[in-house]
Amino acid sequence: MTGLLLATRVELFKLRRTLALAVALVVPLALLAMLAANILSRDPNQVIPNSPWETFVVNFGFFLWCILALPLLVTLEVALLAGMEHGQRHWKDLFALPVPRWQLYGAKLLAAAALLALSLLVLGLGLGVLGSVLNVLRPSLGLAPPVPWLDILRGVSAMFGATLLLLALLTWVAVRWPSFAVPSGVGITGTVVALILDISARADSWARIFPWSMPLSAVAPVSDNRPFESHLIALGLGVGGGLAVAVLGAWDVSRRDVLA
Questions:
Q1: How many domains does the chain have?
Q2: Tens digit of pLDDT for each residue in 25-64?
Q3: For 197, which of 7, 153, 207, 215 could close a Cys bridge (C-beta 3.0–4.6 Å)?
Q4: Which domain does 234 fall in, by range?
């Protein structure tokens, strides 16, 4: 495990001044800016119905993040991380090191998970701060303090766990095939399918187990179509499935002499 920790430290060090790190920060900030512009462009006297903070965070912020930003963010991040080695054909050099190949693969996966966690942290903090700013600019929205930081933390934590299966799957694809187009194509196709499932009332059962839709299922408001059990299913499959696919991916990469 010492090799895994060392390899992970190297991967994190390599992220400095990279596009992958910039994307992890820019994407949640861009979504927050879009959310603010959308709300401020509405009628100044409009009031957010029901629970204003829950509606703002879950129905607005988390929903847009899960159906638009998150799947594409994960797709781009893993493709960029794998491309750091594919582009210069560094995999042969890495495999020549006295470190088990599965640990090198695991370090790449942990680096991707760290970038995902960073994006979710920025999103969670940003939603709390943005809601407070909007309360000053538009008191009629009803976003009065206190900020529900605990609920936001629970939401981003649930999304992180439910995204692990998607992260492991796309990392496997990105490392296995050197072409940037392969993980991009898989990620975009899955995003389109997930969008169809998420907006279809008859596809809730499929959305709970489809990797691209599981993050939304983990934080969606409880309803007749999405009972609380769907949250647990999405979270359990995300964590358990993510670990299983990570093991399969490490095994597949370890048994290959050349990644092509």
A1: 1
A2: 999 999 999 999 988 887 777 666 678 888 888 888 999 9
A3: 207
A4: 2-36+48-254
